[in-house]
Amino acid sequence: VLASVWDRYKLGQMHALRGRPVTFGRWSVHSTNVLGGAVFVLLGASFIASQGGSLLSGTYDDLGLSALGFRLQAWLASAL
Fold first, then answer.
1. Cα separation of 17 and 32, whole Å?
2. How high is the pLDDT of residue 49?
3. Which of 10, 24, 34, 73 is deepest in the core (most CB within 10 A)?
4. Is 60 exposed, middle or buried (0-12, 13-18, 19+ CB in 10 A)?
5. What is the rounded average pLDDT of the residues 54-79?
6. What secondary structure does DSSP assign to 15-43, as a single string?
């Protein structure tokens, strides 16, 4: 779906969506590389801050997803 929208509206040719070279001292990198690196740093920081996702276990239990996961695991073990 995203690719068809990208092609239909020619988003790859839009000046605002195209990256630009960025120079940091003697290093020259592309702005999309800087953006991608920043996303990975934020993802890693959120993973560390949430103690590897352990903060989500309470939410999983509240929604019943833990029990669903155990039932799915048991079903797969018996099916295989």
1. 10
2. 86
3. 34
4. middle
5. 86
6. GGGS--EEEETTEEEEHHHHHHHHHHHHH
8 φ, ψ (degrees, to nearest 5): -60, -45
- Mean pLDDT calculated for residue range 23-49: 93
Q: Looking at beta carbons, which pairs linking 38-47 to residues 24 or more positions away fall under 8 Å? A: none
> How far apart (Å, rounded) are the C-alpha atoms in residues 66 and 63?
8
Read off the pTM: 0.56
Three-state DSSP at 55 gives helix
Confidence bin at 73 (pLDDT 50/70/90): very high
Computed over every residue of the chain, the mean pLDDT equals 89
